[in-house]
Specification:
140 residues; alpha+beta; Thiol Ester Dehydrase, Chain A; 6-stranded antiparallel β-sheet; 6 strands; hydrolase; HotDog_dom_sf; Thioesterase superfamily protein 9
Length: 140
């Protein structure tokens, strides 16, 4: 069985990836028993839908969902995983806010893992939800 990833190890993997580091993600909580990972995503001007709008573009929202879902499943396997598929439902605009992503592992199977990710604004309102599947087969 692979070693579990703790918060510091996940953060190191985030910081070691140029794209994820650019997103500025920071780990807030890891709960292996519940299969939950909580991550903060700060707003950046590069994420804006329109210049000086303060509104998140859907692309960075999707990237946060995919990344946090990946590491929710991956924290149980000791590594990052390739994405098979994912979807996003945008529920309301995210404007002038950081986002908190809460990922819950729904399946941690031998070949496929599934995670649901909820994105909340600073006021605790749900702004987007996503579900993703990841390949969990041993790499090697």
């Amino acid at each position: 069985m692979s070693a579990l990833l703790n918060a510091e190890q996940i953060q190191a993997k985030f910081d070691g990836s140029p794209f994820i580091a650019w997103l500025g993600l920071s780990v807030r909580d890891v709960n292996h028993e519940q299969g939950e990972l909580t991550v903060l995503a700060p707003m950046r001007p590069e994420f804006e839908r329109g210049a000086a709008s303060g509104q998140w573009h859907g692309g960075p929202l999707a990237a946060v969902i995919d990344t946090v879902g990946d590491f929710a499943v991956g924290m149980l396997l000791g590594r990052g995983l390739p994405t098979i598929n994912f979807r996003v439902d945008y529920l309301r605009p995210a404007v002038n806010t950081a986002l908190t992503a809460v990922a819950r592992v729904r399946r941690n199977g031998r070949s496929v893992g599934v995670a649901d990710v909820d994105l909340y604004n600073d006021q605790g309102a749900l702004v987007a939800i996503g579900r993703a599947t990841y390949a969990t087969l041993s790499q090697g």
